[in-house]
Design a protein that fits this description.
binds magnesium ion; metal-binding; binds the ligand Cc1ncc(COP(=O)(O)OP(=O)(O)O)c(N)n1; binds ligand 3NM; thiamine biosynthesis; EC 2.5.1.3; eight-stranded parallel β-barrel; single chain; Thiamine-phosphate synthase; 230 residues; alpha/beta; TMP_synthase
Amino acid sequence: MTDFTDEELALDPNFADRFEQGFRPACQLYLISPPAIGADFADSLAAAFDGGGVAAFQLRLKGLDEDAVARAAEPLQKLCAERDVAFIVNDSMALAKRLGADGVHLGQGDGDPKEARRLLGPSVQIGVTCHDSRHLAMEAGEAGADYVAFGAFYPTTTKETHYRPDPSILGWWTALFELPCVAIGGITADNAAPLVKAGADFLAVSGAVWSHPEGPRAGVAAFEAVLARK
Ligand SMILES: Cc1ncc(COP(=O)(O)OP(=O)(O)O)c(N)n1
Ligand SMILES: Cc1nc(C(=O)O)sc1CCOP(=O)(O)O
Ligand SMILES: [Mg+2]
């Protein structure tokens, strides 16, 4: 543990904690859409945004062709722009380009982050799935990713998963690299604290918000307290 001067501690009682964490900003919520959505999903998304701070929204619709995802995206991308939430497209750099999205999330089989950078330019956010692998994360960073995603930290019914990282991978990452890291997989307001404490910059969450018994607004609001604990 580092020693701090009285002045440093008087200016900011959390100085020691923040110093140990490398002054990383507070952990933020990264909302993932349900795998399938209805015609009124924009209302649910607006309700979720009303619940509290959401930094990014990922449109993750599985099993639809690109034109169908593009049609679904239109009102959602508009809403994200109005609410100052980054609009991220899952899987397809071509669709991200077509929509002028704020970012794209690429899995290990979804294409090369370097190609995405060439296609999308310097200001579009590129995220890469790294499962439980330090090696994949360092590779993604070297390839120019804007964030790396580790998961699945907990069991989830949203997607079949094959990896179960330990939260310590987040602490390892944040101790060595400035690039933000995302934690994903079965995260709820009740089980998120170890991930926030370990250093996650973002919690990527789907089911805990969309299946919250009191609706998506309450689903987002439930994360407020745990996010503040970093
Ligand atoms: C933030 C975030 N992290 C991981 C994933 C998973 O991506 P991928 O491995 O490509 O799996 P699918 O989501 O495409 O089923 C993600 N989408 N977002
Ligand atoms: C899309 C996704 N990717 C994962 C990974 O481990 O890479 S886990 C996952 C599902 C996230 O949804 P929920 O919050 O409902 O578990
Ligand atoms: Mg994918």
